[in-house]
Design goal:
The complex is a heterodimer.
Chain A lengths: L1 H19 L3 E6 L2 H5 L2 H14 L6 E6 L11 E3 L4 E3 L7 H14 L24 H4 L17 H6 L4 H6 L4 H11 L11 H10 L6 E6 L8 H8 L1 H15 L3 E7 L3 H16 L15 E7 L8 H8 L23 E5 H13 L1 H5 L9 E8 L5 E6 L4 H8 L9 E6 L5 E4 L9 H6 L8 E6 L4 H15 L5 H18 L7 H15 L3 H5 L2 H9 L1 H9 L14 E3 L9 H5 L5 E2 L7 E2 L9 H5 L5 E3 L1
Parallel strand pairs in A: 1-2, 5-6, 5-8, 6-7, 9-13
Antiparallel strand pairs in A: 1-3, 3-4, 9-10, 11-12, 11-13, 14-17, 15-16
Chain B lengths: L2 E5 L2 E5 L5 H7 L23 E6 L2 E6 L10 E3 L3 H17 L4 H9 L21 H10 L5 E3 L6 E3 L14 H5 L7 E4 L2 E4 L2 E7 L6 E4 H11 L3 H5 L6
Parallel strand pairs in B: 1-5
Antiparallel strand pairs in B: 1-2, 3-4, 3-5, 6-7, 8-9, 9-10, 10-11
Classes of the chains: A alpha/beta, B alpha+beta.
Chain lengths: ~625, ~240
C-alpha cells in the first residue's frame, strides 16, 4: 500500500514543482455560464497576447470549472484568489486583455474589472473579501475554480485520491461506519442517510452489485450537479470508487443528461486518466479490487432523475419509474442490489475519509450534516452557485450571499426544491435551511434549486409555470400524475386568465391531495406542491384572480392593463424607447400614452419608469 | 400460510410474496382494478386498487396489486384517502375516455356520476393500462406494441406509428383490452389492425376465413406444426 501512496505523492510533488516554475497562474472560469458569456474568447485572446509578449514560459492560464459568480462572468482569477476580475471582455475585449497583460507585467490592478458589490461603492480585489464568497463554506466545491478539471495531476496535487488510498486500507464496514457517523444524507433531494443505504446494499443478497451516480439534474434553473461534474469530475469518481469498495460492487455507471456535453466530456477524460494511473479498472492500487465506471447519457426525460426510472433507462427501456416496495438496494438495476447516490453526495465522500467523520459531523445542524450547494437564481443580485453549511437561513443566503433583491424591490417568495418544490413566503426567511425544515413548510430542499421572486412575480402564474413543466415531464405511467396534473394545470390556467370559478380553490386542494397520495413515484407525489404551497401562503392572490379578476403583481396578461399616470409622467421618453412593440407615444416633456390595442402587456414600461408613472390596473 | 395481518379488521392469512390484492379478493373483499391481469401480473399504472396500509404508526396509500403481505399490518380498503384516490382516478379516466363503457360502469359503481373536466376527444377508450403491450410481449411474444411519448401525449402504438413488421395480426391485444379501444376489422379476406392489412387464410375444408396467414406462419415456425395442418380451421379439425 505504501508504494501506491508514494506514487500518488510523487505525482503531486512533480506537478507542484512544475507549477512553481511559472511566475503567474491565471484561472479562467470555463463553466457553462462563463463560456456562454465569452470566456473562451477571453482565454484565446489572452493566450495570444501572452505568447506575443514572450511570456508563455512564465505565465500559465488554467481553464477551470465554475467559480459560482455566474452573474458577473466571465471570471478571471489571478494566483491563489489574489485578484478576481469579473465581466472580462464583456465590453471591449481588446482593452480588457490589455488590462490583464498589465496586471501580469506590472502587477497593476485593473480597477474597472473589479467586483463592485451590490451598492456599487466598494471595489473588492480578492474574492475572499467578496460577501458572496466569504459567506460560503466550500467543501464539495472547494476545488471548483481552482483546478483544471481535465488534469488529474492537478486534482492529485490538491489532495486528490489520498482518500481512496486510505479507504483501501480500511475495513469495508469501517468505511460504512464512518459515513454513517458523519451524518451524510443524500443530496439529490431525498435526504436519505447515505451510510444506511450503503450498509443495506452491502448486506443485501445478490450478485453482482452496482453503484450509480445520478447526474440527471433536470430542474429548471439548477446547475449544481453540472458545475460539479464539469469542474471537479475526479471528486465524483473517487467517491464512487470508495463506495463501490465498501459496498462490494465492481461496476458503476454515471447517469448524465445528454444536455450536459461538457460534463460528459470531462467525466470521460477523468475516467480514462484514473484508469491510466490505476485508480480505476482492474486491481486498483494493487489491492486486488476491480471497479469500472461507465457513462450513461440520459435521453432528456426529467423523470429519469427518479431512481427507479433512471435504472429502467439504463436497462434500455423507456424511463418509467416502478413501485419501490422492494428497495433498489435489494433489487435495482437489472434486479440486482444497487446503490444510487447523487453526484454531490459522491463528491462529499473523499473529504470525509480524509478528514474523518467527526469533522464532517461538526458542520451543519443536528439532523442535516455538512453543506449543500444551491443554485441561486431569479430576482436576486448575485445569481450563481453557492455552497453553505446546512442550517444557514434563507435570509442569509438570499440577502447575505445573494446581495438582496434586484432593483431594491421587495422580496415575495423563494421557490426551493425544483419544479415540485414549494414557494416559501417572507415570514419564513429566518428558517434554517435543512432537509426537514423545508419539508415542514410544504416545500423541499430537493437537489438545491433556489428561485427568488419579488413583488412582480404572480404566484398563480408561478404555479401555472411549474405545473406546465410537470405536465410535459410526467412520464404518463400512472393515472393521478398523467391526468391529474394536467387537470390542475387547466384549473390554474383558467384562474390566471380570469375564468376562475369560486369552487376552483377547494377543487385544487382536493385534486392535489389525491395526486400526492395516489401517484406512483416522487414526481407525481410532489407535483402538486407548487399549487398547494402557493395556495397555502398566497391564498388571497388566488381569491383576487377569481373574484375580482385582478392580478396584483401585474403578470397575468388577460387581467391587467398598463396605463400612464399623467400627474407623474415627466415625458422622459424612456418607456417609449424601451417598449418592444413601440406602442407608447408622446413628445419630449409631454405626458405619454399607451396604445392599449397594440400593448402586449410585457410590463417593460412599468419596470423602466423611474417616476412610478406607469400603473398596473 | 405464514403471514398474518388484517383487512378492514378481519384477520387473514397469506403466503409470503402474495399481494394484498390477491389475498383480499380471496377473502371476499372487493377492490377494483383495471391494469392488473391474472396472467400478466401488475404494473401499478391505474392506481384504482389502492388501499391504506398501517404499519406501526405509519399509514400510507399503496397499490394492493404490488404490495406484498406483511405480518401485523392493518389494511383498509375503504378509508377516506382510498376513496379519494379511487374517485379521483375514475373521474379523471371518465374525462379521458368518456365513451368507455367499462369506465362509465365502474365510475357509477363508486359514486362518480360525472366529470368536472373537459372531456377529451382524441384518446378513444385507451386508459393506458398497458395490458395490450404486455400481452403482445409476453403471451404472443412479438412485441409489436409499446408505449410512446410521455405525459398527456403518451399512447400505445407500433414503432413510429407505422405498420409493424413483427405484428402477426393475431388480435390478442383486442381481446385483452379491458375497454374495447383497439380497432380490428375483418373484411373480404383482409384483416386490418394497427394500420396494417393482413391476408386471412381460408380453411380448405369449409372455405371460411379464420386467421391471418402471418399468424399461422408464426405458429408453424414456433411450434413445428405444418402450415397445411394449421390452415384447417378449429371447427373442421
Amino acid at each position: 500500500m505504501h508504494t501506491s501512496l508514494s506514487k500518488i505523492e510523487k505525482i503531486a510533488t512533480e506537478y507542484t514543482s512544475r507549477m512553481k516554475g511559472f511566475q503567474k497562474i491565471i484561472r479562467i472560469c470555463t463553466g457553462t455560464g462563463c463560456v456562454s458569456s465569452g470566456a473562451l474568447r477571453v482565454h484565446d485572446g489572452l493566450q495570444k497576447a501572452i505568447d506575443s509578449e514572450g511570456l508563455s514560459e512564465k505565465v500559465l492560464i488554467k481553464k477551470t470549472g465554475c467559480h459560482g459568480l455566474c452573474e458577473r462572468g466571465p471570471i478571471v482569477v489571478f494566483g491563489n484568489e489574489e485578484i478576481l476580475y469579473q465581466a472580462v471582455g464583456k465590453r471591449k475585449i481588446e482593452e480588457d486583455i490589455h488590462l490583464l497583460i498589465s496586471t501580469i507585467k506590472y502587477n497593476k490592478t485593473a480597477e474597472n474589472l473589479l467586483y463592485k458589490g451590490t451598492d456599487k461603492t466598494k471595489r473588492y480585489v480578492s474574492s475572499r473579501e467578496i460577501p458572496f464568497y466569504s459567506g460560503q463554506t466550500r467543501l464539495v466545491l472547494a476545488l471548483n475554480g481552482i483546478i483544471d478539471p481535465e488534469e488529474i495531476e492537478d486534482y492529485i496535487a490538491h489532495g486528490g485520491y489520498r482518500a481512496l488510498a486510505k479507504a483501501l486500507t480500511m475495513e469495508r464496514d469501517e468505511i460504512i461506519n464512518w459515513i454513517e457517523k458523519s451524518g451524510l444524507r443524500g443530496k439529490g433531494g431525498g435526504g436519505f442517510p447515505t451510510g444506511l443505504k450503503w450498509r443495506s446494499c452491502k448486506e443485501s443478497d445478490g450478485f453482482p452489485k452496482f453503484v450509480l451516480a445520478n447526474g440527471d439534474e433536470g430542474d429548471p434553473g439548477a446547475f449544481m450537479d453540472r458545475s460539479l461534474m464539469e469542474g471537479n469530475p475526479h471528486a465524483v469518481i473517487e467517491g464512487m470508487i470508495i463506495g463501490a469498495y465498501a459496498i462490494g460492487a465492481n461496476q458503476g455507471y454515471i447517469y448524465v443528461r445528454d444536455e450536459y456535453p461538457l460534463a460528459v466530456e470531462r467525466l470521460s477524460k477523468a475516467i480514462s486518466h484514473a484508469e491510466e494511473l490505476g485508480f480505476l479498472g482492474k486491481n486498483i492500487l494493487n489491492t486486488g479490487f476491480d471497479f469500472h465506471i461507465g457513462i450513461f447519457r440520459g435521453g432528456g426525460a426529467f423523470v429519469c432523475g427518479e431512481s427507479t426510472a433512471l435504472m429502467t433507462s439504463i436497462e434500455g427501456k423507456a424511463g418509467e419509474p416502478r413501485a419501490k416496495y422492494i428497495h433498489t438496494v435489494e433489487k435495482g438495476l437489472w434486479e440486482k442490489p444497487t446503490n444510487l447516490n447523487n453526484v454531490e453526495t459522491w463528491a462529499s465522500i473523499p473529504e470525509i475519509i480524509n478528514r474523518g467523520w467527526e469533522w464532517f459531523a461538526s458542520i451543519g445542524t443536528e439532523k442535516s450534516k455538512g453543506t449543500k450547494v444551491f443554485s441561486l437564481v431569479g430576482k436576486v443580485n448575485n445569481t450563481g452557485l453557492v455552497e453553505v453549511p446546512m442550517g444557514m437561513t434563507l435570509r442569509e443566503i438570499i440577502f447575505g450571499l445573494g446581495g438582496g433583491i434586484q432593483g431594491g424591490k421587495k422580496f415575495k417568495a423563494v421557490q426551493t426544491g425544483g419544479p415540485s418544490g414549494g414557494c416559501i413566503p417572507e415570514q419564513y426567511l429566518d428558517m434554517p435551511v435543512d432537509f426537514d425544515s423545508l419539508t415542514g413548510l410544504g416545500s423541499m430542499m430537493g437537489s438545491g434549486g433556489m428561485i427568488v421572486m419579488d413583488e412582480r412575480n404572480c404566484m398563480v402564474d408561478v404555479a401555472r409555470y411549474f405545473l406546465k413543466f410537470l405536465v410535459e415531464e410526467s412520464c404518463g405511467k400512472c393515472v393521478p400524475c398523467r391526468e391529474g396534473v394536467r387537470r390542475m394545470y387547466e384549473i390554474v390556467d383558467r384562474i390566471s386568465t380570469g375564468k376562475g370559478r369560486e369552487e376552483d380553490i377547494a377543487h385544487l386542494e382536493e385534486l392535489g391531495k389525491a395526486v400526492q397520495i395516489g401517484s406512483l413515484c416522487g414526481l407525481g407525489q410532489s407535483a402538486p406542491n407548487p399549487v398547494l404551497s402557493t395556495l397555502k401562503y398566497f391564498h388571497d392572490e388566488y381569491v383576487l384572480h377569481i373574484k375580482e379578476k385582478r392580478c396584483p403583481a401585474g403578470v397575468c396578461k388577460e387581467l391587467i392593463k398598463f396605463t400612464i399616470v399623467p400627474e407623474k409622467c415627466t415625458g422622459c421618453m424612456r418607456c417609449a424607447s424601451e417598449c418592444p412593440v413601440k406602442c407608447i407615444t408622446g413628445e419630449k416633456k409631454q405626458v405619454h400614452e399607451i396604445n392599449q390595442s397594440r400593448c402586449i402587456k410585457c410590463g417593460t414600461c412599468y419596470d423602466v419608469c423611474r417616476f412610478d408613472a406607469v400603473k398596473i390596473e | 400460510m405464514d403471514v398474518e395481518f388484517t383487512i378492514n379488521g378481519k384477520r387473514v392469512l397469506a403466503s409470503k410474496g402474495e399481494t394484498i390484492l390477491d389475498v383480499a379478493r380471496r377473502e371476499g373483499f372487493v377492490i377494483p382494478s383495471l391494469c392488473h391481469h391474472e396472467v400478466l401480473g401488475s404494473d401499478g399504472r391505474c392506481r384504482l386498487c389502492v388501499v391504506e396500509v398501517q404499519r406501526g404508526k405509519r399509514k400510507r396509500i399503496v397499490t394492493s396489486c404490488l404490495y406484498t403481505a406483511e405480518n401485523g399490518i392493518e389494511v383498509f380498503t375503504e378509508s377516506p384517502d382510498v376513496q379519494l384516490v379511487r374517485k379521483t382516478v375514475l373521474e379523471l379516466l371518465l374525462a379521458r375516455c368518456p365513451e368507455a363503457e367499462t369506465i362509465q360502469y365502474l365510475a357509477r359503481q363508486y359514486g362518480v356520476h360525472d366529470t368536472r373536466y373537459v372531456k377529451d376527444k382524441d384518446k378513444g377508450k385507451c386508459i393506458l393500462c398497458g395490458i395490450c403491450v404486455r400481452t403482445c410481449e409476453t403471451i404472443v411474444g412479438v412485441t409489436a406494441l409499446s408505449m410512446s411519448g410521455k405525459g398527456p401525449l403518451k399512447k400505445v402504438t407500433t414503432p413510429f406509428d407505422e405498420p409493424s413488421s413483427v405484428c402477426i395480426g393475431c388480435g390478442a391485444c383486442v381481446i385483452a383490452c379491458p375497454t374495447g379501444h383497439i380497432y380490428m376489422e375483418d373484411n373480404n379476406g383482409i384483416r386490418t389492425i394497427w394500420r396494417k392489412k393482413f391476408e386471412l387464410a381460408k380453411c380448405p375444408k369449409c372455405g371460411r376465413y379464420h386467421a391471418p396467414l402471418e399468424q399461422l406462419e408464426y405458429i408453424a415456425k414456433k411450434s413445428g406444426t405444418s402450415l397445411d395442418e394449421l390452415l384447417i380451421c378449429q371447427d373442421c379439425k
